[in-house]
Input
Amino acid sequence: MRSKLTILLTLTLGMAYGQSPFIGSYNGSQREAALELYILPQHHFVFAMSYGAIDRTIVGKWEQKGEKIFFQETKSADRDAFIVYEGIDKELLAESEFVFKNFSQNTGTAFRILPEFHPDSMKLIHLRDENTFSMTNRLSVTPKAHSSFFLSAPNNSVENDVYEFKPATTSNTLYLYYNHDTNYDTFQMEAYLKGDSLYMSDGAGERFFAVKGTLNSDYEALLSDATENQRIPLQLEVEGLNGKRIILQRLRPVKQFKCLLHLDENSAYFSDHENGAAPTSPPILH
Output
């Protein structure tokens, strides 16, 4: 015999499902593209997509108006173009190591270690036509006690967003991530049901997305995991020089501003060769 608690939970879930005919799961996967949309009770949705170099999970709120449903992404407050971590690797003695992650996803990014900023001093990290997606590049720098460093990303066809970071003098390991989520506009979409089939509607027209499926009862865990994965951690554990694990701390920019940069389009820190991306000779940084 089912317990009263089980019956109550079943009834509660059924009432939640009855709020809208849209609530359910939708597998819109196609060839070379995995697409999963979960329309949840309490007006939440999770949209997971993976195709090519794109791997995104969008979390937001939905609203039903008549026979249509409207989706609006809930953006994280942490929208910096660069996520940086610093720490100490005791195996590194006379140098510091800068590790660049995913910068080849936006080859307009630039970098420089400088005592003070100058728009003529920034240098491209990758040449603009060398998109190698999730490549990792390493740059060794001396002396260990470096000053501020600057990162920039194109804001529009003219200006760049420039960030100044000032690591602790004891830090000799820095991991720099390009936050490719800043490339995307806020996700907005409207859709409607035709029977059990969901059709998406946007500026490109209307198109079939998927047939509605059953929403699993653990949808709250799904939402919690998706929301948590969007948070940027304050600490990062990485493998140091000799394979030992080291803990890095989030380093926030001390300044952010917009500027017109004067970049040499033929010069970059890293170049893409036949055998993969390889660093150029480490430059002398001033």
Summary: The radius of gyration is 24 Å. The first helix runs from residue 4 to 17. Residues 1-17, 274-286 have pLDDT under 50 and may be disordered.
